[in-house]
Amino acid sequence: MFEHLLQSNASLQLSLDSYRGQISVHALSHKLFNEEFHLIPREKRSRRPLKALIVFTDASGASHKSVMTWRNPQTQRWEADVEFVEGSPQVAELAAVVRAFEKFSEPINLVTDSAYVAGVVSRAEQAVLKEIDNEHLFRLLSKLIYLISHREHPFYVMHVRSHTDLPSEIAEGNRQADSLAAPVENARLPDIFQQAKLSHQQYHQNVPGLIHQFQLTWSQAQAIVATCPNCQVQAMPSMGMGLNPRGLGSCEVWQTDITHTSSFRCLKYVHVSIDTHSGAVYASAHAGEETEHAKKHLVQAFSVLGIPKEINTDNGPAYTSKGFLEFVQQWGVEHKTGIPHSPTGQAVVERAHQMLKQVLARQSSTTVSMSPHEKLCKAMFTINFLNCSFENMSPPVVRHFNSGNQLKLSQRPLVMIRDPETWETKGPYELVT
Question: Where is each Integrase-type domain found (predicted)?
Fold first, then answer.
């Protein structure tokens, strides 16, 4: 080391030029000075997500917007910093990242949908920057390297795919950033209340359904239903249900019956089946109410909702015939009939009749050109996917396919995963989706 320094340092050569003595270069005898020592600066970039503020960045080449947004921990409201930056979307998003490091000195999680920006940020700490032709980009990179290298608190950078619809806080924040960065003509409709009104004009779902779908308050959802002229004829029944015995899970006990809808003309005989646990409804229009029509209806219902363990019907001739008994035996379904002439023996399906007819009446102004089968499909979509009750804010179709043991996967497939940073293969793990 000394010989190399003597050869390369002119000042040292001049100072020792006339020295005639002996030069000894050695470490002190203390063991502290004789051990090998490596000076490595502490890395500020965390390899794992931090329990800290999440900042989302995005940019648009069309609008030249450079966006960063975050949810305020105190108010739980979204806040944003938007600037107009000339250049490519990558340069604009890099400018947003620089502003994020300038604004937040505390630990942060940085989420970006640009793989380029995520790669630059992950490699910027203690980096040496060479001269580049783009002066604006050079200034941004220089500032980024300085801010990251002189941080006191750690940060975590994460890359996510843009325009994802996964239900998570990361996806929600990314959509918020996308909306802020989009041009005005492509920006999403900000008024959720107006979206709920438009949806209700199309489907006429009930108050709990609007609250569940659009996260409205009770008074907002009630105002939409109260001002709808089609919903003022008669009140929509809630999904709450009578006093008949019910299944403990979906596809355990069904009730099946026939109602008449005169507006369907030759297909006025509407066969209806309802799962007594989940409230999921299947209805089909037929030209009669004989055994063959009842069998055809149930086969269609089995293909949509699954095969129940037990079906309850009334004592009508369609359900007491030999052909119908052979049909249910063939499908392995237990058949029970109610008390003769009892108006409450089929209370659950009778309530479903009332609800189905009310939904059909409210949607009549938007289904004029539809066939009876299409009208029933739209009504069933509203009942099964949009409506719910205050007792259970999940729609019937969610309850139906989440509570039945025969409708669940007995075992999830095993998969291996690879860490994109270390390229290590880990697993096996159960597949989540």
Answer: 191-232
User: Nearest to residue 200, comparing CAs of 352, 359, 357?
Assistant: 359
State the CB neighbour count (10 A cutoff) for residue 232. Answer: 11
What is the rounded average pLDDT of the residues 195-204?
87
- DSSP string spanning 77-142? -EEEEEEE--S-HHHHHHHHHHHHHHH--S-EEEEES-HHHHHHHHH-TT--PPP-S-HHHHHHHH
Query: Please, where in the chain does CATH 1.10.10.200 lie?
Result: 192-231
CA angle 101, 107, 110 (to 5 degrees): 55
Express each pLDDT in 201-229 by its tens digit. 888 888 998 888 888 888 888 888 888 88
Using DSSP, state whether 167 is helix, strand or coil: coil
Q: Is the pLDDT of residue 29 over 90?
A: no
CATH for 53-183 (3.30.450.20, 3.30.420.10, 3.40.50.980, 3.40.50.2300): 3.30.420.10
Residue pair 97/117 in contact by the 8 Å Cβ criterion: yes
Tokens of 242: 């009578």
pTM: predicted TM-score of the whole model, two decimal places: 0.51
pLDDT in tens, 48-58: 999 999 999 99
Strand order in the sheet with 53-59: 78-84, 65-71, 53-59, 108-112, 155-159
pLDDT at 365: 86
Superfamily name and number for 192-231: Integrase, N-terminal zinc-binding domain (1.10.10.200)
The residue behind tokens 């055994």 is 291
List C-alpha distances in Å: 111 to 65, 125, 310.
Answer: 17, 17, 51
Give span(s): CATH 3.30.420.10, the chain: 53-183, 253-407
Q: Is the dihedral of CA 109, 115, 121, 122 positive or negative?
A: positive
Buried b (16+ CB within 10 A) or exposed e, 51-82: ebbbbbbbbbeebbbbbbbbbeeeeeebeebe
> Would you tell me the crossing angle of helices 218-226 and 207-214 to the nearest 10 degrees?
130
Question: What are phi and psi for residue 39, nearest 5 degrees?
Answer: -100, 110
* Architecture of domain 253-407 in this structure: 2-Layer Sandwich (3.30)
Express each pLDDT in 153-169 by its tens digit.
999 999 987 655 455 78
Ramachandran angles phi, psi of 190, nearest 5°: -80, -20
